[in-house]
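pasting input
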Amino acid sequence: MRIKLLQNRVLLGRQSVSSTCTPLGSTMIHSLFLINSSGDIFLEKHWKSVVSRSVCDYFFEAQERATEAENVPPVIPTPHHYLLNVYRHKIFFVAVIQTEVPPLFVIEFLHRVVDTFQDYFGVCSEVVIKDNVVVVYEVLEEMLDNGFPLATESNILKELIKPPTILRTVVNTITGSTNVGDQLPTGQLSVVPWRRTGVKYTNNEAYFDVIEEIDAIIDKSGSTITAEIQGVIDACVKLTGMPDLTLSFMNPRLLDDVSFHPCVRFKRWESERILSFIPPDGNFRLLSYHVSAQNLVAIPVYVKHNISFRDSSSLGRFEITVGPKQTMGKTVEGVMVTSQMPKGVLNMSLTPSQGMHTFDPVTKLLSWDVGKINPQKLPSLKGTMSLQAGTSKPDENPTINLQFKIQQLAISGLKVNRLDMYGEKYKPFKGIKYMTKAGKFQVRT
Amino acid sequence: MEQGSLLAKISEASCNIRSVLEMAGSLQVTLKPEPSVEERELANAAADQYEQNLTVNEDLKQMLESNKDSAKLDAMKRIVGMIAKGKNASELFPAVVKNVASKNIEIKKLVYVYLMRYAEEQQDLALLSISTFQRALKDPNQLIRASALRVLSSIRVPIIVPIMMLAIKEASADLSPYVRKNAAHAIQKLYSLDPEQKEMLIEVIEKLLKDKSTLVAGSVVMAFEEVCPDRIDLIHKNYRKLCNLLVDVEEWGQVVIIHMLTRYARTQFVSPWKEDPASFSAQDISALGMNQDCVIKDGVLEEDNEKDFYESDEEQKEKDQKVKKPYAMDPDHRLLIRNTKPLLQSRNAAVVMAVAQLYWHLAPKSEAGIVSKSLVRLLRSNREVQYIVLQNIATMSIQRKGMFEPYLKSFYVRSTDPTMIKTSKLEILTNLANEANISTLLREFQTYVKSQDKQFAAATIQAIGRCATNISEVTDTCLNGLVCLLSNRDEIVVAESVVVIKKLLQTQPAHHGEIIKHMAKLLDTITVPVARASILWLIGEYCERVPKIAPDVLRKMAKSFTNEDDLVKLQILNLGAKLYLTNSKQTKLLTQYILNLGKYDQSYDIRDRTRFIRQLIVPNEKSGALSKYAKKIFLAQKPAPLLESPFKDRDRFQLGTLSHTLNTKAIGYLELSNWPEVAPDPSVRNVEVIELGKEWSVALGKAKKEKPTEKFYSDSEEEESASTTDTESESTSESEKEKNGKEEGSSMENSESSSEELSDSESESKEGSAKKKFKTTEESDSDDTEKKTKMISKKRESSGSSDSESSSTEESSSDSESESDSESDAESRKHKNAIASKRKQMAVPEKKASSKQDVSLLDLDDFNPVSTPVAVPTPAILSPSLVADLEGLSLSRSSVIDVSSPIFVPMKTHELLHRMSGKGLAAHYHFSRQPCIYGNQMVSVQVTLTNTTDQKLENIHVGERKLPAGMKMHVFNPIEFLEPEESITVSMGIDFCDSTQTASFQLCTKEDHFNVNIQPPVGELLLPVTMSEKDFKTEQGMLTGMNETSTTITVAPQNSTRLVLLEKVVKAANLGVVPSGQDNIHRFSAKTVHSGSLMLVTVELKEGSTAQLIINTEKTVIGSILLRELKPVLSQG
């Protein structure tokens, strides 16, 4: 068989102009293994001939070397295959490929798989996947054909394979009917593949959440080293029929670095700075944007810190205070301080002025759930650290990671001007919500 | 979270309900023991035990035999569960396959899943299912047709190959695009099952490539990449369509198409990178405008702006011309770059990366910058995406720092980043370091060095070392900083610092005695072998700088020798040897002691080294001649190690590929070819002119590989005939053509761009028709001479003459179609034709020049003489000049047949305004020898303006003109501003009225105005024409008497060869070469630009290095001037 193949290749060689490619005939994603954190392969799916699960040994090897899950290299070469993996929800999704393929293609697809599972089952965990193994299998079957992505829009998938609901599960078991749709998803053929037809709602509503996350590095003295805003507009649109929406902004110039959901008409945005789109049904991310100009990024909180280790003594001082800075008059809520203490710290005895704090002596992680910041009475956490006797003081003070939320504020100043609907006659209910959060917000001490 | 747990509870509850129901159901139907226990076992993923497996399989079989769908379904679900867990369920095959015709669609689906997994193992049984699929392939429901095809093609059973082939063929003509999409997928499957089907599959691919549906595009390109990535000729006619459809294709297809088009473009267009800095500014402008109009102008603007090329070195010419050539971007090239740009906004990281690599590999350097912002945005994504993107940025940032410099801070490292992300970011930061930002960076690095992640801290020290070597200003600062780190408490940090310091000191052998002393002290404390070895090496290498310490160190080391690591032992030996040579008084005994220790070491490496060193340095009677040179050997000046980025050579791989990530060639990696020297003919992408397209693809094949071409040709002919007999495919291609045309006009996405194109082509065609007016009757005559080369003449006809003519050479069907087409269509077609004809024109005169010598050449290497200069005996001189022609050809050439493109375009520039007299504004001009785009009586002049001041020059324009009567001038558009050190090339048209009178005008800036003159050499007042020898003689016969001037000249001996003579003459005047039957007579023909009068030049070489120079023309004045100018040209060496 093998020889015959080779002969064919020789014969074909005459025709091919440059014979750089060999018809190995394996496309994109060959197989997928799902591996949990304890190293069990709990699901495998092959789109072509079966690849033995022993291929995962190379992965386990790499995992061992990396010590931490997130340090496992996303691309692992093995003698005959390449393993591309993503790590989410404590599960490794390992794709096996055989030939050259853009790695991002596979990685992005694997993330899409995770998103789809999440969308289907609410959560993506080992238990849920095992419980719904048939649906998972059917979905995977639809998502890839011969290793090439076929249907990745969750709207379409849900038409092909209905997500499990309690009612349907019960009914199906009694009547023997199925989860599988027998109609071709209409979206697949239309010019708006992301939307299914025949959508009907009694309450027509469209909600938009403008959510901004601040990524920042603040140095010891409190000055900003780098700060960026990552914004998204998440939408929940439940509208009957084929609505055509336009969303305009008071200050669209802020959005110079954006990426869109495929539904957004790019030309219109280029020329008028208006978002014009036929929305998918349900929840989706309309756009994400990036504001990197540092002067535009207001830093809403500050951290005063005094962390000191002394060489001689086995005690260290620890004191931090969190206060509001540029909050545009809004309250800072949900404040959470975490810090990875150096290895030398044995324990900490601290007293917060408000909220709860914990210190895990094993992982050396300090976390302090502050809650709301009251500008009149700033929250603080003070106390001492006990250090391992005999060792010298750590080189570096710990970095403080901050989380917070500010409701009803988009820190970049982005404001939606209006939302209009065309194409349908009813009056929808519209709502817009703003929120600012901390992204990767670090304070160096 | 809450929702999740709720859901979990609910599903748990529902599970219970279900299992109860199932139990009830199964009790009713079958009598089997405890199914629910079994099921729970499966659900809990208990360890599979063989015996249990058997019993499970037994009852599964029973369930499958049952006549209740629910039981079957349940069984199938459990089987799928087994497959998912990787358990073997193959023995159930007969039981399962019976259910393939089940009415229940879910059972059916699960059976499909099972079939795809096990059909390969149970081929005979699998055949039982085939008829079901064959029936389903005819189902009225497209979903069923599609899924039947999917499953059928996924069953890897070689016997059904013919069935699959048939199914694919039928499905590829299905009315439903969804089915056609699945057909495209099936192609790859069949191909991997049986590569012998390749040729038939290529036919299907070819058909599907013509598909207009965005649904199909991605899948078929995928199949193309899989089956026949080398058949680039299949893409030609679909190129524009693919570019235009791209935005609407689903995202995965976009990635595949973009990668394929990147490869395509690298074979079809010339490099946009070779332009000199002067034209960069113009490119920038076009980048802003991003429309074709602009690009075309650029093409004109950018011609030949090298100044002193000609004067420099004649012998270098050939090379230079290849390297530096004026550049005009092919509109199709631009189309691709423009149409991919919106995709940078995609939410799919793979798409963004694909566009980024396209820009990196295809766009002019000045435009590639727009991708950086999008790439930086991806850094917010998941860790895996970040990792890949950072790697690619690392490679980019080595070559083009500027692209990512503005985003420096985005690469700052956070303590929460995974180590691999940290190191990639560090790599980029190091690449981006320069004099301006180094101080900020070093401060940032200081933070990193203190990181708790020691691996990362060590990497940072390496990075500091690299910055120190790359930026000499900070070397000392870095060195001091690293020395400070030596007192760090962490050993890894210290060790790394020692290693880096060692390297730095080596690159900088200045006086660093202090540092060495400091490091010598470290030997007492530090234990890391590499660091100890590095210190010892340093002391040994620079032992003369630390004469007191070195022997002491050796003494200490001698004591600890036996306990050291091998690496350190070697360096101790080394140190001993060096000290012995420089300071033998103090160290002789010590060294001998160490050598004795080494002699009995456990490691043979060390024993070897000891023996070697002893022989070399210790004088004894046996020691050979080498020991005299021992000092030279040991203390030779050593080259400093290079501190280089590990990403330095990564760019040999296409960015964004797996191979790039791994830095090794992955299986199936398709090499990105280098830019061709000369672009293959662009008209192959014209969808309208099928005839041409076919011919050209053939020519292309020839050019690519110089192997027997007949075979290839006949192959494609077969294909051609096949496609014509296949009426269906023909009709689709026809309709597609129509659609394509309309698309340009109407498609929402492209309306903007196409309108540009349209207006553009309109102006184009106007010019074209204007030119046609001054066409003479020579055309038919010239055709006579070329009867042998029918193919070419046909092309010339179709391209060179007007539109209607061209269509007449085609089949009548396409003719009628073109007539029925809309106005806009015809217009755009004209445009394309015009472009095509231009390209052809460049080539044709070249052929004419050589056709007399070697007619067979024409068939063999067709229109691509330059790419194969070695294999083909084309006059060597003419080839490079043809390169110049190809490049120099602006996009706005007329399509008149008799005026050929110039044989040679001199690079010689003339000074218009010296920078001293122009207060910093310098201007040069040269004659591009192109028909002027501003009027057909004008001579086109290229003016290069350079700002040599350090300020912006604003509003550069032409002011007052002082022209002799009758003369006309078309000035360039005012230039808004010119940045310091930049230059721009603009084009002007001047109608000199066939005289050598001076055109005077003022060149103005915002503040000043300067008087300047342009005086044309008489040779530039001509346009070359092509004619046969016979015509030449006829014309000459009519231009005798008064119209003839002649003289006898002495010809320098080196000028008497044909090639040199031709070169000299065409250099001096813009003449066309007439093929000559006699070796000693050379004829040239041209016409004057203004009046179009013929100018015939004959050089007749006589014996005794004399020659008769005859010029026949109505314009006797110019004739005599030309005679005078040609005289010295020929007589001087």
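fyi Residues 103-121 of chain A form the longest helix (19 residues).
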